[in-house]
Amino acid sequence: MPNSDFTVEDFCKDPNFIHWVLSPTDESNRYWQSFMVEYPHKVADIETAIDYVKTIRFREIDPSQQDLARLKQRIWNDIEKLESETATVRIVPWYQRPYWAAAAVILLVMSIGLGWRAYQANSSLTYQTAYGKIQEIKLTDGSVVTLNANSVLKVADNMADRPVREVWLEGEAYFDIAKRKGAKFIVHTPEAQIEVLGTEFNVNTRRDQTHIVLEEGKVQLSTDNQSMVVMKPGDMATVSPKSRQIQLKRVQPDLYDAWKASYIILDGKSLPEIINSLEDTFGVRIKLEDTQLVDKKLTGKLGTEVAEDCIDNLSIILDVDVKKEGDVYIFR
To answer: Counting runs of H as helices and runs of E as strands, what totals does the chain give?
Structure first.
């Protein structure tokens, strides 16, 4: 989540920033313009990061070892030439330089799975929510998607006319899929592919994992490393980016989709889990000075319509004081 401490490298690595630069929308433009107004000292870094992201162009190929060797030699030749022309030069290997590292990250993000790469070419409509905002989206096939704060949804062109309806998600969304005979609906995330016919389920791709909670209907889930797994209502599937293995457990679905009504159900959730959710929703950081609070059990509901009110109410529930320093809330 972008904040006032972001460097040029951080912006270049941020998926939402990359999406904005490469596929801007009215909403993403408003968000980043608001960000620059709030943090004017970051404008120069943002402009530099934009140049780097726009400059990077990739072809989806598998370079040979010979190609890589030639590229590496060419880079070192350029470095040696620069060294000979400069009195004092500190040579840093190309792969350790921050902007080359950022470029490598962008390449990695764009090349995770065939389905995930495909959205750049096949999608024409992008929805993006700002921090603290929820949007209900009615798709042309009759399906309804509720997009949580700080999330991006890309929708395939001419969805209603396609035999396979496809969307790509980063963040969190609740899907109510319209049934169409013989027409699959596929949700792509960075870690997995979710295939449905007609059902309701929640998908969360935050914190480098994909979580799917099925409320009703039937979902088929697959990854690069695991074949199809069928989910039943009440199942939660978790997919990590490293193993790409699917882990199932039984949960209460209403604990995971209450955000649609702008609140969090605290029952059964750890405090770190609640804090992560608030940080992702509002784009802030929350710090616990008293580490014993981590083990505290909470019950009830916490409204999430307004960041300040939500965090103040959480401090009351925890019976602690809260102090704001920049975009960091400190519970003490």
So the answer is: 9, 19
